Amino acid sequence: MAHIVFFEKPGCAGNARQKQWLRDAGHQLSVRSLLTEPWTAASLLDFLDPLPVADWFNRVAPRVKSGEVQPEQLGRTEALALLLAEPLLIRRPLLQVGAERRGGFDPPAVDRWIGLTPDAAARLRETSEGCAAGSMASCRPTE
């Protein structure tokens, strides 16, 4: 099984489910806060670069949901500057296994990459990213 560096938004229910499914599949996790990591343009691009710019963004971030930030309208340089200034906008989780880095949690891709249990892969198709049912309330840090 894999050792995964898992960058999350602390307290996010969606990230909690993803971590549990990875652990259930036998993976070991080193969990880090996406919000406090000292990101540089190069370190963040290591995770996001293969994706289209619009897919770099967390669709349930308040500024994206409100339309204030429109990922489809941004170029690489402007998008990267926004993400570095406001890590809450970064699509999560960010995953690293060895030298390979990926952004977001696409269940079939994660299953092919490092493996998930069959029941976890099926459940993940229903609620794979972000907060439960798109609710920001479920992503508030636990007290």
Characterization of this structure:
It is built from six helices and four strands, in the order E-H-E-H-H-H-E-E-H-H. It has a single domain, classed as 3-Layer(aba) Sandwich (Glutaredoxin), CATH 3.40.30. The chain is α+β, with helices and mostly antiparallel strands and 143 residues long.
How is this structure best summarized?
The protein has 143 residues and is α+β, with helices and mostly antiparallel strands. The protein has six helices and four strands; from the N terminus they run βαβαααββαα. It starts with a strand and ends in a 17-residue tail after the last helix.
Task: Chart the SSEs and their pairings.
Blueprint lengths: L2 E6 L4 H12 L3 E6 L7 H8 L13 H4 L10 H10 L8 E4 L2 E4 L3 H7 L4 H9 L17
Uncertain regions: pLDDT < 50 for 5+ in a row? 132-143
- Give the distance, in angstroms, between the N- and C-terminal Cα atoms: 32 Å
The CATH class is identified as Alpha Beta
At CATH level 2, the architecture is 3-Layer(aba) Sandwich
Quickly count the domains: 1
- Binned, the helix content reads 25-40%
* Backbone CA Rg: 14 Å
Strand order of the largest sheet: 2-1-3-4
Number of helices: 6
> Main beta sheet: strand number and arrangement?
4 strands, mixed
Q: CATH-wise, what's the superfamily?
A: Glutaredoxin
**Secondary-structure element string:** EHEHHHEEHH
What general form does the structure show? Answer: globular
Q: Helix/strand-derived class?
A: alpha+beta
| Total E-strand runs | 4
- What share of the residues does DSSP label as strand, in percent? 5-15%
CATH topology: Glutaredoxin
Mean pLDDT: 87
